[in-house]
Amino acid sequence: MTDKQILLLPGPTPVPPQVALAMARPAINHRGPEFKALWEEVTEGLKDVFQTRSEVVILTASGTGGMEAAVANLISPGEKVLAVTVGAFGERFIQICRAFGVETEVMAFPYGQAADPRAIARRLEADTEHKIKAILVQHNETSTGVLNDIQAISRARGSHPALLIVDSISGLVAADLPMDAWHIDVVIAGSQKAFMLPPGLTMLAVSDRAWQAAEKCTNHRFYLDIKKARNSGLKGQTPFTPAVPLLYGLQESLRLLKTETLAGSFARHALMRDMVRAGVRALGLKLLADDTVASPAVTAICVPEGMKPADIIAPLREKFGVVVAGGQGDVKDRVFRIGHLGYVSFSDILAGLAALENVLIDAGVPVTRGAAVAAAGAILSEGMPAGVETLAS
Ligand SMILES: Cc1ncc(COP(=O)(O)O)c(C=O)c1O
């Protein structure tokens, strides 16, 4: 059997059958009343997920489109931003800023580490003329499996007026990010991550302060114009033809998340993270990120001495149908990544670890058979908070 796969990727993630069925509904007129009702339900539901009362826009684009929309709609050419990067997606934000003529000051931290809020505070304190118009940062850096402390970064801003723009494409729903409570100005999400949908939608929640910046912004945009999207959205429409099946899927995934609750989702993701970390450590492998900054969505694992990521990734897929991701950026040749976000169950994690163990044994790596599943199973037995309803249960 070669067609049955367990996707342990940091996106795209598996799609629940209810969501897949919802996406198979007959076509509707996207300028008609059925669409308006769908639109109103999903935009209201998204506000709960972003934990905001601000307006949310949905664009038909992958997550990078959401990052581009944030830059093109909020920062004018020649204006300055502080781009805080801890990996490959931070570097992508820098590329986008430069492509849009934005003066980009880079604050880079090594792959595997989180951003230091104190360094951000120091930089902003030194910016007495308030030249820095925005801070750009990842919530969850997918290339390294590091979760930045966004609350601390927001506090580090102090009274500096810079907008805080957070790429939470792989973080939202997997880790807590209360936008309003943490005074975040823009949160960007993507459909193919913890939302359990196929790729194709990006969602941006935009604070009042950020909407004011959008009024003044002179940068170029057309398709990704968030003001156009908001104004059409208020009438229950989109400026351009929307990806209606994905919106049906979103409606269903929001209903599933409502049943699980956000707290339940965060607990499930944290538990999957701990299972993976315990299991991998029991095999003697090293993790790129420290426990204190470990992502609940994805874990980057260092390959054993003398092996390449492909030596693990290929047999996992070919022999076991377990699909994991390679490395990116600076650590491309040093790590492989196990995704544990979205519609992933505890048994998927156990199966993935068992397969990894076999691959290592086949490659001659000295590991104790059964060690990974035993370690992860122990975490699972003690870990699930009582009474938490999860999608996996
Ligand atoms: C943190 C982060 N930012 C941005 C992106 C880019 O999103 P997309 O590939 O959907 O354009 C990803 C995708 O993996 C991501 O994980």
TrEMBL record:
Which Pfam families does the entry link to? Aminotran_5
| Co-factor(s) | pyridoxal 5'-phosphate
Q: Which domain of life is it from?
A: Bacteria
Q: Could you tell me which residue ranges the Aminotransferase class V domain spans?
A: 27-328
At what positions is N6-(pyridoxal phosphate)lysine found?
193
Q: Give the PROSITE patterns listed for this entry.
A: AA_TRANSFER_CLASS_5 (PS00595)
UniProt keyword annotation of Oxidoreductase present: yes
- Summarize where substrate binds, as residue positions: 337
A single Gene Ontology MF term assigned here is: L-serine-pyruvate transaminase activity
In its UniProt record, which GO terms are filed under biological process? glycine biosynthetic process, by transamination of glyoxylate
Keyword terms, alphabetized: Oxidoreductase, Pyridoxal phosphate
Check the record and name the InterPro entries matching this protein. Aminotrans_V_dom, Aminotrans_V_PyrdxlP_BS, PyrdxlP-dep_Trfase, PyrdxlP-dep_Trfase_major, PyrdxlP-dep_Trfase_small, SP_NH2Trfase/AEP_transaminase
- Does the keyword section mention Transcription? no
Function per UniProt: Soluble hydrogenase catalyzes both production and consumption of hydrogen from suitable artificial electron donors or acceptors. This subunit catalyzes the tritium-exchange activity.
Q: Which family does it belong to?
A: Belongs to the class-V pyridoxal-phosphate-dependent aminotransferase family.
State the oligomer form and interacting partners: Heterodimer of a large and a small subunit.
Protein name per UniProt: Tritium exchange subunit
